[in-house]
Amino acid sequence: MPLRFLLYLTLILFGRICVGQNMQIAYDFDRLPQTLMLNPGSEIDFDQHYGVPLLSNLYFQFGASNTGVTYNNIVQGTDDLNQILTNLNLQNPSSSDVYVLNQQLEIFNVGFRMRDTRHYLSFGLYQEANGFGRHPKDITDLFFNGNDQNGDGIPETDDPYDLSELNAVGELIGVWHVGINRTVNDRLTLGGRLKLYSGALSIQTQSKSGIYSLSQVPFGFEHVFQRMNAGINSSGLVNNQGVNVVGDPAEILANALGGGGNYGFGIDFGFTVKSDNDLTFTGSIRDLGFINFSNDVTTYEIKEDFSIEDVPFDPPEGQEVDYWDDLWTGYYEAGLLEDKLDTLASAYTQIRPVKLSGSVKKTKTRRKKINSAYRTVSCDQDFIGDTTLESEYGLQVYSEFRPVTVLWAVTGFYSRQFSKSLNAKFTYTVDRFSFYNIGVGVSARIKQFNLFVAADNLLA
Q1: CB neighbours of residue 420 within 10 Å
Q2: Contact present, 399 and 356 (Cβ < 8 Å)
Q3: Got the DSSP string for 242-258?
Q4: Do 101 and 59 touch, CB atoms closer than 8 A?
């Protein structure tokens, strides 16, 4: 039954992968071309740029609000699904824990200043994978312990389990984009970006409500499901005949580039404002948009209350996956679920996670000091010839609107020009995932080339 595959995929994906698209190091740093993707209203000082295909921007970030959920604790040393889920459960995650994944690969990125030099046009294509999930505590407890949560051998009756906790979304998409950056005057820069989304793969739960409990009846037990309004949407994973339709990597990439038939639109806006006292304010809103999935779409829904008379759930330790797999197969083949589970092939819309970024920074210039015979004085001679170098420090904020929660981050930063060709940025970030996230970014300009590298979570 393909629904088992989708359920396990949801639990595995959002139980293992776990800090979103903050990109606090790259944001508003050294006027890099990539800063236009984070704020289309960024200040820029170049007349054209050409990203190296597949190399100019590689990005991967993941994390969990539960600090015990790490690769070493969950995945290392095993490829057994049951062991991975057990390792996750040993970290005792709660229903407030969330997991987030973001990966980006820039395929190409080009920009140039237009005839009206106040305008800068940029366009390109990148591939992106996103995942978000909230830990389903009640479902996890039921998965591992069945109806005997305290392990005394006596099943607990009338204890409710909230099935709506299963809240997850994942996607693999391609994004074609074109943006315009306008220098209004010396103090104000505005920008916007139009995006065309092409979806290759998608999975999305729609568990709005649902309560499970075990009841005792005169001749045994009854599993009761009430207020049911739950389901799973998928595209590019299985068709409505239950056949796995996930293609090879080349086919998935082709679908992400525009051949999959799943399309949507989005927009970004941003600005930069300078004040009289060397303060600069920036802000951006990204991914105001949606994707309509209509290709190889399968939706499973249960919107009817029902009950099943059977013995209490009792999964053997270390064999939970096989237990639930066999139980589901038995119920389905016996016709106990067939008339309760609707299989649909209708299109669905997935709203993009909206992201807000902002910053305030103070800029200081440095000039060379010379020694006088009478005293040390500061003169107007620049640090290197007629070059003035800058240092900046300030604060950045970030919010990402996800189902049932808002992800947030606050970053203090200091950036420094060591020369006109070498700049570095140091960040300290506090967010839902960590209170000691230290990052460093280095930008080097060598003739017509710009090299940029960033590393985050250096203490982890």
Answers
A1: 13
A2: yes
A3: S-B----HHHHHHIIII
A4: no
CB atoms within 10 A of CB 214: 22
Burial state string for 127-148 with b = 16 or more CB within 10 A and e = fewer than 16:
bbbbbbbbbbbbbbebbebbbb
Beta bridge partners of 358: 283, 397
Strand partners, 124: 109, 177
Pairing relation of β-strands 297-302 and 342-344? antiparallel
How many residues make up the chain in this entry? 460
Q: What DSSP letter does each residue of 7-30 carry, written as one string?
A: HHHHHHHHHH----S--TTTTT-T
Closest CA to 85 of 14, 159, 165: 14
pTM of the model: 0.84
Question: Cα(167)–Cα(232) distance, rounded to whole angstroms?
Answer: 10
Query: Tell me, what DSSP letter sits at residue 238?
Result: B
What is the residue whose two structure tokens read 């890099």? Answer: 32
- Using the Cα atoms of residue 301, residue 265, residue 407 and residue 430 in order, give the sign of their dihedral: positive
Q: Is 302 exposed, middle or buried (0-12, 13-18, 19+ CB in 10 A)?
A: buried
Q: How far apart are CA 165 and CA 137, in angstroms?
A: 7
pLDDT tens-digit readout, 217-273:
988 999 999 999 988 999 988 766 666 777 777 788 788 888 778 999 999 999 999
User: Quick one: pLDDT at residue 182?
Assistant: 97
Which residue, 105, 231, 262, 238, is CA-closest to 168? 231
Q: Is the pLDDT of residue 378 over 50?
A: no
Packing angle of the helix pair 137-145, 320-333 (nearest 10 deg): 90
Outline where DSSP puts E strands in 236-326: 262-274, 279-293, 297-302, 306-309
Q: What is the mean pLDDT of residues 296-307?
A: 89
Whole-angstrom distance, CA of residue 61 vs CA of residue 133 = 15
Work out the pLDDT band at 6, boundaries 50, 70, 90. low
82-119: pLDDT as tens digits: 888 888 888 888 888 888 888 888 899 999 999 999 99
In sequence order, what are the residues at sequence separation of 6 or more whose Cβ sits closer than 8 angstroms to the Cβ of residue 149? 141, 156, 159
Both tokens assigned to 402:
């996800």
